[in-house]
């Protein structure tokens, strides 16, 4: 099965946990994700399956949108609620005006130090592995962009926020630094990702929902009576009148909705054959595009091609049909 499906990641799961669960649900090994979520976080986790795992390279710089809660009063070693307190708990009573003013200071291009418990590497070793061994973790600041950071409500020592950020931005670090500036300490209590690139939470499905659909399909398949099919030998053979498009298939994102910033073209049979074999083709209708999505029919994405010159395009990535690698 080649496709993209959006999972609403539950709290307590790593992104790799979700990938492994989906491998069992789909019964296939070729499953990956388009952007890690911390175990604490929930929400949009796009998964790619089959040959469409090759799309991952186009989503490395994707914009993300979050909703979450920052708790003031003490900091933790992980910068979130999964960590151990590293400061004394103190009474914290931030006001809406105070936090709105502080949040505005983070909007724009900023230098941010990633959390010590993160996947950032130090001499090839993920920082979190060093931090777990209580070794010194020194990470260099990186430039990120916070495009929107709004405090939407304040309740006692907790601030509810909404943020839209560039790839590589850690909201845990934002929470930690806000606490430092206020002198109270702070950490990220909860985080929910509501959008990644063109995918949003309205398209997401829980693992329980997906497992339920799979189980229902298996039950229905078991109840379909075998058909008696005459053979050329005169003997009867048996088959099943299965619908090629399953209910689980219907939960995948339609391929035409992927990478909306790249124009699409529908190839005829001869053009599709050339593309599938890795040969260049002429696409006169897209003479100004740098990249183009090539479809065969309405829903089969067969390649992403790059313009060589004029109307000549060469396949950059070819996506073999289901069952082929």
CATH architecture of one domain: 2-Layer Sandwich
Determine the strand fraction and express it as a percent band: 25-35%
CATH superfamily of one domain, please? Pseudouridine synthase
What is the count of β-strands?
A: 18
Low-confidence stretches: 229-245
Pattern of helices and strands: EHEEEHEEEHEEHEEHEEEHEEEE
Radius of gyration: 24 Å
Oligomer: single chain
CATH fold type of one domain:
Pseudouridine synthase
Compose a concise summary of this entry.
20% of the residues lie in helices and 33% in strands. It has 325 residues and is α+β, with helices and mostly antiparallel strands. Strand 16 and strand 17 form a beta hairpin.
Folded structure, characterized:
The model is unreliable at 229-245 (pLDDT under 50). The chain has helices at 15-26, 96-104, 127-132, 171-182, 207-223, 269-276; strands spanning 3-9, 31-33, 42-49, 64-72, 108-112, 121-122, 125-126, 142-155, 158-165, 186-196, 199-200, 227-230, 236-239, 264-266, 281-282, 291-296, 300-309, 312-318. Helix 1 (15-26) packs parallel to helix 5. Helix content is 20%, strand content 33%. The chain has 325 residues and is an alpha+beta fold. Among the domains are: 64-196, Pseudouridine synthase (2-Layer Sandwich); 254-325, PUA domain (Archaeosine Trna-guanine Transglycosylase, Chain: A, domain 4, Roll), CATH 2.30.130.
């Amino acid at each position: 099965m080649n496709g993209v499906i959006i999972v609403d990641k539950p709290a307590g799961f790593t992104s790799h946990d979700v990938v492994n669960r989906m491998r069992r649900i789909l019964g296939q090994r070729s499953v990956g994700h388009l952007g890690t979520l911390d175990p604490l976080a929930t929400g949009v986790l796009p998964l790619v399956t089959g040959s469409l795992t090759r799309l991952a390279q186009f989503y490395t710089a994707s914009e993300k949108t979050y909703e979450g809660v920052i708790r003031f009063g003490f900091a933790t070693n992980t910068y979130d609620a999964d960590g151990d307190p590293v400061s004394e708990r103190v009474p914290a009573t931030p006001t809406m005006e105070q936090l709105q003013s502080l949040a505005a200071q983070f909007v724009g291009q900023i230098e941010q130090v990633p959390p010590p418990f993160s996947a950032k590497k130090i001499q090839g070793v993920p920082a979190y592995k060093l931090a777990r061994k209580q070794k010194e973790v020194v990470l260099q600041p990186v430039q990120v962009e916070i495009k929107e950071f709004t405090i939407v409500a304040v309740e006692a020592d907790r601030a509810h926020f909404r943020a839209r950020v560039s790839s590589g931005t850690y909201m845990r670090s934002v929470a930690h630094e806000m606490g430092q500036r206020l002198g109270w300490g702070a950490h990220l209590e909860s985080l929910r990702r509501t959008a990644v690139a063109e995918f949003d939470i309205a398209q997401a499905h829980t693992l329980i929902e997906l497992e339920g659909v799979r189980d229902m399909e298996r039950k229905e398949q078991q109840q379909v009576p075998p058909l008696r099919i005459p053979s050329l030998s005169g003997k009867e053979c048996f088959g099943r009148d299965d619908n090629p498009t399953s209910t689980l298939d219907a939960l995948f994102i339609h391929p035409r909705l992927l990478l909306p910033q790249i124009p699409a073209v529908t190839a005829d049979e001869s053009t599709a054959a050339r593309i599938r074999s890795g040969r260049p083709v002429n696409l006169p209708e897209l003479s100004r595009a740098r990249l183009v999505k090539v479809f065969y029919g309405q829903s089969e994405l067969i390649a992403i091609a790059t313009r060589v010159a004029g109307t000549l395009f060469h396949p950059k990535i070819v996506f073999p049909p289901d069952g082929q690698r």
